[in-house]
Write a structure and sequence with these properties.
By secondary structure, the chain is α+β, with helices and mostly antiparallel strands. Helix content is 16%, strand content 11%. Bound molecules: iron/sulfur cluster (2 copies). The site of one iron/sulfur cluster (SF4) has 14 residues, from loops. One iron/sulfur cluster binds next to loops.
């Protein structure tokens, strides 16, 4: 990630089609590990770097607190995502040959200006901040 969708989500689906890298799974997608909310695939989210100035999903979202910051998808947080995958917080895609697509397999771009404390606190993004 990246960004994370929380229990505040009302499943309006406004964000999914806005994602430039198809990182958001709708509620009824069989790969979505969440119940009743949408899910951002951390191994796919690029925080809209190279696509927009702000996360597009947040621009589309009508619900404050439904999309928040998460940790960057980089090697520094490999264990964080691995642990989350084991706990069920995340469902990291599994590649036939490479295995789990953790940051050790492929890091993703992230917005460097975001304070790590905001990421740790899963703080609001952009227009809600
Ligand atoms: S921040 Fe951008 S890349 Fe990440 S889920 Fe939202 S729209 Fe997709
Ligand atoms: S736009 Fe916001 S409230 Fe609507 S589905 Fe996406 S995260 Fe949930």
């Amino acid at each position: 990630m990246a960004v994370m969708i929380t229990d505040e989500c009302i499943s309006c689906d406004a964000c999914a089609s806005e994602c430039p890298v198809a990182a958001i799974l709708e509620e009824d997608n069989e790969k979505n590990p969440k119940d009743g909310i949408l899910y951002v695939k951390p191994e796919s989210c690029v925080e809209c770097v190279g696509h927009a100035d702000e996360p597009r999903c947040v621009e589309a979202c009508p619900t404050e607190g439904a999309i928040v910051w998460d940790m960057p998808y980089t090697m520094d947080f490999n264990e964080y995502y691995k642990g989350g995958n084991e706990e069920g917080t995340y469902k990291i895609r599994e590649h036939k040959k490479k295995g789990l697509m953790l940051p050790e397999q492929k890091e993703q771009p992230f917005i460097a200006e975001i304070a790590m404390s905001d990421r740790e606190a899963h703080a609001n993004i952009g227009r809600w901040a």
